[in-house]
Each structure stands twice: as C-alpha cells, then as structure tokens.
Specification:
It is found in: Cytoplasm. By secondary structure, this protein is of the alpha+beta class. It contains 5 helices and 6 strands. The strands form 2 sheets. Strands 3-4-6-5 form a 4-stranded mixed sheet, with helices on one face. It is elongated.
C-alpha cells in the first residue's frame, strides 16, 4: 500500500523495480493499480486453470433403452447397468421405445419406468420424470447425493489356498522310503 499518487510517479516506481503497473479496478475513483510481473502473473493463472481442468469430471449422459414387453430378468440386468453408470458419475436416460400397436398403451411404459425408479430408490435422483417424446418415453436419473456405490469384492487368490488330500489319495502317496529293495 503506497497510497494515492500520480500515474507518472506510479510508472516511475514500476520501472525502478522492473515490474509492470497493472490497473486492477478502473471504475473506482481513483483507479486502483498494482505493481507486479505481468508475464509471471499470466503464467500462474494459466497453470491454475490447467490444474482445475485436470481435476474436473465431465458428466456424460448414457442411455438405456427398453421395450414395453422387456422381460423381468432383462430389466434387472439393465437396472444393474444403470447403477454402474451412476457409480462412474454419469447421468442416465432410461427410455422405453414403442412400436406399432404398443403406442396405444403408454401407461405400460410409464409403469415400467416407475418400477425402475422404485428399484433404484435411494441411489438415484430423478431429474426429469417420465415423459413422452414421439415414440419414446424417457426419464433422466442421476446419482443421489451421499449415495456410494457398493464396493466390489475381490475373490481369494488361488495360489495361496492349501489343498488337502482325501483319505484314498493319502494311501497312494508314499510315506517314506526306509525300506530298501533287496536285489540279488
């Protein structure tokens, strides 16, 4: 903090210290300026932006498609896939595609989407409720705040397990070679 001074005096101070005079707030009276190395300042700003860009995750919109007559097991598989997408941090559009006479029964598709939302309750937030768009009815879900995906369990390694022999196999294994064959 140097205080209020003329622009000419401020430029002289900047030149003496081999720095730049940068106007920070031009709209106030008198304008506020700083003495700093502008090239280094720009470099540090770019470095901070790159670091912030590295740490951010882009959220993509994945889509799961079904039909009104999709079987229960297939729905369970697709529900697990939705949870996998959510665990990766993506949003998911769940769509039901209608063809032909199926268009007369959009209530079946709505019920299917509501059933999926019920199964995923607690792990998802419904961003857009089921709505009809042409021949597709869809809803968009995202990860619920505070929900953590289940951890994958690692199977025990096969190399460290001990195999025990059955009693029948134990008889076939020679115990010791104390007896010598007598050969004439």
């Amino acid at each position: 903090m140097v205080g209020v001074m003329s622009p000419i005096r401020a430029l002289e101070m900047a030149r003496e210290r081999d720095l730049d005079l940068v106007e920070v707030s031009p709209n106030v009276v008198p304008p506020v300026c700083k003495l700093l190395d502008y090239g280094r300042y720009k470099y540090e700003q770019a470095k901070k932006e790159n670091e912030a860009r590295k740490n951010q995750k882009t959220v993509t919109l994945k889509e799961i498609r079904m039909r009104p007559r999709t079987d229960e097991h297939d729905i369970e598989v697709k529900t697990r896939k939705i949870q996998q997408f959510l665990a990766e941090g993506d949003k998911v559009r769940v769509s039901v595609q209608f063809r032909g006479a199926e268009m007369r029964h959009p209530d079946i598709g709505r019920k299917l989407l509501e059933d999926i939302a019920e199964v995923l309750k607690g792990s998802v937030t419904i961003e857009r409720s089921p709505s009809m768009e042409g021949r597709m009815m869809s809803m968009i879900v995202s990860r619920a705040p505070g929900w953590e995906p289940p951890k994958k369990q690692t199977p025990p390694s096969a190399g460290k397990s001990k195999v025990k022999a059955t009693p029948a196999e134990a008889e076939e294994i020679p115990q010791s070679s104390d007896t010598k064959d007598a050969t004439p």
